[in-house]
């Protein structure tokens, strides 16, 4: 079955509504920036790279009917960027993508609005294409860290649904499965939103990769039983020192991996590295609606008026990360020094 | 609201069907040993101490209509014990309770069947009454480990629903709340069966104790944020060296507590200590139906034909346990030596 998390048909943006997966494959149509904002906010589309691409097209949809001069076009683009960036605060790819669009406009602000609109659309398409290329490389580099008969543990969804193609951590899994024999996966269901049970299980099945689904609280026990060769997760934002924000439970896995002496890898395109912040302390952690915790699969499970914490992400400190798999290669500690080197890479 | 996990009305046993909590309070009637077996197996009643009491009454229900001589009565009791013990393999309290009934019969096997039936019923009632007394003491001893403004983390349900009264780990929480000011609780929802979200949240609300519900994968992050003073869990079986089988996720919390230097306590009556096994390696781990993992709150969440692991329990090695809170006092390491001392306690 062919599915795409997002595509632009030349007129409108189509987004696969992931809230209804794995049972219903339904696309929603985004006509304007508000449709894109809502799709991100309501998690019709999710995954750091995918929401970056969505936001880039959101910039275009918000600007294509603009009627005014170039100066006002720039102002409108700035407003749009702020608006779209606020849809979800933790993943840096969103703000990174809208910044790329805005930078392209600023570089060419002396041109007429017609050309600016074309440049915006071209840049959004470029962001989309680059995502697929980058993820392919992540898979190539990351798969070097695994070998025959390995069982790879992962959390959340980092596959084609979370990106444009291939995925991030999922790309490492997929490429390892293609290259080696006996590759198995253990997927955490990833409460509260169940991206593991709903989306990763769906993508693993589609790819024919053998896997076991577990509840998040079984992760330590399967490590203790020796069932896990290595762990690969995605990332929503990586600070310069390697501290990584990702789906809540990632930090849990990193601590458990450390205790069980299992390698713990983070896989992300370099657009996920926030070169403007030194440590994870500066990364905002999104807290979402309490309903996500008091409900499961749309059904209430906890008593009425139950109070919850609902941190969507956590921060894994760099000292628990064995290596960061990027599209420019595998980066080992010291991350502060070695991530900074990427800044000077011409392919960045 | 008054609720009891189990009671005998002089004729039949009533069991609060916990599968429908917290929304429906429904009791089911057990007329015979098969009804008890099914109630335990299907988790209408759960919690190590509570299923011990249920099994004791199951022995009585299976024997009260017995028509034969004392020798055959003994044989019938042995069969019943094997049958009931097989309902769930991990919790030792079940086999411990049926053994108490059988031992009472064996001690008095030269008496007539009429008297034996009376002794069986008396012993079942005694097991029920002792459970409440023991749990009260667990709360008294355990609360000494906490103080004002502490936030206590717990997993699964260990309250009155898991026992006859007060609970085990829950008794420690409740007594701490009564004795100190500013006590708060963080309850893990405890997938796949959601005993935390459904039952512990229900009991905490009934008791008026402030709490936050979290998904299991948030546990590490709230520890990292400094929100947890100590962790108390129940136990399904404790080996002589202190290794503890309990709800899956307990071992995860123990590793996370160790990493974050947070005290990790196990609370259980001494009927939970299996003096016949040296280490946790000998404890059988129940694996339950895959439906529990592929579904949540009765609704399918994972694709069809998804394979899962569903370990209901895990083993926490003794070196990760700060202390074991029993009805005879708080036991510190070395557990091998100090648990053995309990064997000579006259109140055992």
Structure notes:
Two copies of one chain form a homodimer. Chain A is α/β, with parallel strands linked by helices and 348 residues long. Helix content of chain A is 41%, strand content 15%. Chain A contains eleven helices and 15 strands. In chain A, the strands form four sheets. A seven-stranded mixed beta sheet of chain A has the order 6-5-4-7-10-14-15. In chain A, strands 1-2-3 form a three-stranded antiparallel beta sheet, covered by helices on one side. In chain A, helix 1 (33-41) packs antiparallel against helix 2 (48-63), helix 2 (48-63) runs antiparallel to helix 5 (113-143) and helix 5 (113-143) packs across helix 6. The first copy, chain A, is globular, with a radius of gyration of 20 Å. In chain A, 56% of the residues are buried. The interface between A and B is large, with 56 and 56 residues.
Mean pLDDT of chain A comes to 96
What's the SSE pattern of chain A?
A: EEEHHHHHEHEHEHEEEHEHEEEEEH
Whole-Å distance between the termini of chain A?
Answer: 33 Å
Share of helix of chain A, binned: 40-55%
Give the largest chain-chain interface (CB within 8 Å): A-B, 56 and 56 residues
Largest pleated sheet of chain A: 7 strands, mixed
Examine the secondary-structure arrangement and name the CATH architecture of the largest domain in chain A.
3-Layer(aba) Sandwich
The CATH C-level name of the largest domain in chain A is: Alpha Beta
């Amino acid at each position: 079955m062919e599915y795409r998390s997002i595509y632009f048909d030349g007129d409108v943006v189509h987004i696969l509504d992931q809230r209804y997966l794995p049972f219903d494959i339904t696309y929603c149509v985004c006509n304007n920036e508000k449709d894109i904002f809502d799709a991100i906010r309501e998690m019709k589309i999710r995954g750091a790279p995918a929401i970056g691409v969505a936001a880039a097209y959101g910039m275009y949809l918000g600007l294509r009917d603009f009627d005014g001069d170039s100066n006002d076009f720039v102002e409108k683009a700035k407003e749009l960027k702020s608006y779209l960036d606020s849809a979800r605060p933790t993943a840096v790819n969103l703000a990174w993508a809208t910044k790329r669009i805005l930078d392209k406009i600023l570089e060419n602000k002396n041109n007429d609005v017609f050309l600016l609109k074309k440049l915006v659309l071209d840049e959004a398409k470029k962001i989309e294409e680059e995502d697929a290329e980058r993820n392919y490389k992540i898979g190539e580099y990351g798969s070097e860290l695994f070998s025959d008969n390995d069982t790879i543990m992962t959390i959340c969804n980092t596959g084609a649904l979370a990106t444009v193609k291939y995925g991030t951590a999922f790309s490492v899994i997929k490429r390892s499965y293609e290259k080696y024999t006996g590759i198995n996966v253990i997927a955490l269901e990833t409460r509260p939103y169940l991206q593991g049970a709903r989306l990763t299980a769906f993508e693993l099945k589609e790819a024919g990769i053998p896997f076991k689904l577990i509840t998040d609280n079984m992760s330590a026990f399967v490590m203790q039983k020796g069932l896990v060769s290595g762990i690969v997760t995605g990332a929503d934002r990586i600070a310069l020192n390697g501290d990584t924000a990702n789906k809540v439970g990632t930090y849990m896995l990193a601590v458990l991996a450390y205790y069980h002496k299992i390698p713990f890898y983070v896989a992300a395109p370099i657009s996920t590295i926030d070169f403007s912040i030194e440590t994870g302390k500066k990364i905002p952690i999104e807290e979402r609606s309490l309903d996500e915790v008091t409900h499961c699969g749309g059904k209430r499970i906890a008593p009425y008026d139950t109070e919850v914490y609902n941190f969507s992400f956590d921060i894994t400190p760099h000292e628990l990360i064995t290596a960061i798999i990027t599209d420019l290669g595998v980066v080992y500690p010291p991350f502060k020094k070695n991530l900074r080197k990427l800044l000077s890479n011409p392919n960045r």
